[in-house]
């Protein structure tokens, strides 16, 4: 039983190291909820759409989360999004 536990732990560590070492290929854009005006950063690697469906795409696609934060900050300062 101890050998199986050690094998599972080693396999878990190997999978974690592999996932952490693989490059993230995510891209992001800003969505704006129509009823509240709240803007949210959406990760395009998520295979589903936001729920509920009362939103529209408010920006172009940007490659990193930090770029998406900058887009959101500019939209907040320009008054296109609410807090």
Give a verbal description of the structure.
This protein is α+β, with helices and mostly antiparallel strands. It has a domain at 28-78. It has two helices and three strands, in the order H-E-E-E-H. The protein has helices at 2-21, 65-78; strands at residues 28-33, 39-43, 55-57. The chain has a three-stranded antiparallel sheet with strand order 2-1-3. Strand 1 (28-33) and strand 2 (39-43) form a beta hairpin. The protein is elongated and about 60 Å long. Mean pLDDT is 81; it is low at 17-22.
Q: Mean pLDDT, as a whole number?
A: 81
Output the strand order for the largest sheet: 2-1-3
Percentage of residues in helical conformation: 40-55%
- Rg, nearest Å: 19 Å
Strands, count: 3
Sketch the topology as an H/E string, one letter per element.
HEEEH
Query: What structural class do you assign from the helix and strand content?
Result: alpha+beta
Estimate the global geometry from the Cα principal axes.
Answer: elongated
Q: DSSP helix count?
A: 2
Q: Note the main sheet.
A: 3 strands, antiparallel
- What proportion strand? 15-25%
Low-confidence stretches: 17-22
- First-last Cα distance: 54 Å
Keywords: Signal
Signal peptide: 1-26
List the helices and strands and how they pair.
Layout: H1 2-21, E1 28-33, E2 39-43, E3 55-57, H2 65-78
Antiparallel strand pairs: 1-2, 1-3
């Amino acid at each position: 039983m101890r050998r199986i536990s050690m094998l599972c732990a080693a396999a878990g560590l190997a999978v974690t190291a592999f996932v952490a070492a693989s490059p993230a290929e995510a891209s992001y854009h800003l969505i704006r909820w129509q009823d509240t005006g709240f803007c949210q950063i959406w990760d395009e690697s998520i295979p589903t759409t936001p729920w509920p469906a009362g939103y529209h795409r408010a920006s172009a696609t940007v490659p990193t989360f930090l770029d998406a934060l900058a887009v959101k900050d500019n939209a907040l300062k320009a008054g296109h999004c609410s807090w």
